[in-house]
Design goal:
With about 325 residues, the protein is an alpha/beta fold. Helices cover about 50% and strands about 5% of the residues. It folds into 2 domains: about 200 residues, no CATH class; about 120 residues, no CATH class. α14 packs across α16.
Length: about 325
């Protein structure tokens, strides 16, 4: 895995309802991982009302290592980790009354994070089971003043709690966030957002995925892996669709497929076309009412699922390593 940095403003996810049948999951009781989530925001905001000095900064650097560097330089962007003025800028950040109010709301809501820690532990045990050669990230929580929901690189997974304060949170409309995003900024989506983001870092989008079908299959693989790691989560949480939008996709699967075929869209490389079907939006432009945005993500997932069915004993690891997306498309024999 390359040394990259991946930040997610918000991976939209939708309405959840329970699955009828509990899916089978492999036995991972013998797999041991370090699943502790470190609460960076609590240590940082403990300096409220104080003037931080270089020793204070050094203590945070020693405890949080690379994540501290990423936080100050790339998340809140107040300077480099070795900047002599860093203590001053961090003092200003934690003593800003508006920022501290947000932190206080996060601490009230997420004082006990054990539920999410357990869900992440379960997911990463499955991750180690299916992808034994990959890394289990060190996991942190943070408050950044609404900069990012999830931040990750090749060893770090960090969750911005201020982006999960609930759809009725008073701050989000003031920030000008669109309604289709706000309704998804809730606690039940933390784990699926985090795991999806980690998969996106582990399996970066290759340059060869430069046409619409390449993008579709790439994201389809991510959703396929996400379902493996979070088998009990309903597809609405994995795809970012509401229940009605997901139902619309299933009811119109044949028509969606025909639209792409009849308009020769699969091998189109125009960015405007790709964004139309892959970009985050409340609906897909040109599609009937009820369609979700990012309909190409969903169709890509169906193609990947069909591809796996056509293979014999294909492991998740082998699937994720396969970057010939035209091959996956052709060999899927997908045709609803």
């Amino acid at each position: 895995m390359r040394n990259t940095w991946f930040c997610v403003f918000l991976l939209g996810v939708g309405f959840i309802f329970s699955c009828v049948n509990k899916p089978e999951r492999p036995d991972v009781t013998g797999i041991s991982i370090d699943s502790k989530v470190m609460r960076f925001e609590n240590d940082l905001f403990a300096f409220k009302g104080k003037e931080m000095n270089e020793n204070d900064v050094q203590q945070l650097k020693e405890k949080y290592g690379l994540f501290f560097d990423r936080f100050v330089q790339r998340i809140i962007r107040v300077g480099k980790p070795d900047d002599p003025s860093l203590a001053y800028y961090l003092t200003s950040f934690v003593n800003d009354e508006s920022v501290y109010e947000v932190y206080a709301d996060c601490e009230k809501k997420y004082h006990d994070f054990s539920r999410y820690e357990k869900e992440l532990e379960d997911a990463f045990k499955l991750h180690k089971y299916y992808l034994p050669e990959t890394v289990t990230p060190a996991t942190y929580t943070f408050v950044s003043g609404f900069n990012y929901a999830i931040a990750a690189d090749d060893s770090i997974l960090a969750i911005g709690l201020d982006m999960y304060l609930g759809k009725d949170c008073k701050y989000y409309p003031l920030l000008g966030l669109p309604g289709f995003k706000i309704k998804n900024m809730q606690e039940q989506y933390i784990v699926s957002d985090a795991v999806f983001s980690w998969l996106s870092v582990e399996f970066e989008e290759p340059q060869t995925a430069n046409d619409l079908i390449g993008k579709m299959v790439y994201f389809g693989k991510l959703y396929y892996a996400l379902k493996k790691l979070l088998p009990e989560k309903h597809d609405t949480l994995l795809t970012g669709f509401t229940a009605k939008q997901l139902e619309w996709c299933h009811n119109n699967e044949k028509e969606i497929w025909a639209y792409f075929v009849n308009n020769n869209l699969f091998f189109n490389q125009e960015q405007t076309v790709i964004t139309k079907f892959m970009g985050d939006a409340p609906f897909t432009p040109g599609f009937p009412e009820g369609s979700p945005g990012r309909v190409g993500h969903w169709l890509g997932w169906q193609i990947v699922k069909n591809y796996v069915k056509q293979q014999s004993n294909l492991s998740l690891s082998d699937l994720m390593k396969e970057t010939d997306y035209h091959k996956i498309f052709n060999q899927s024999k997908y045709k609803p």
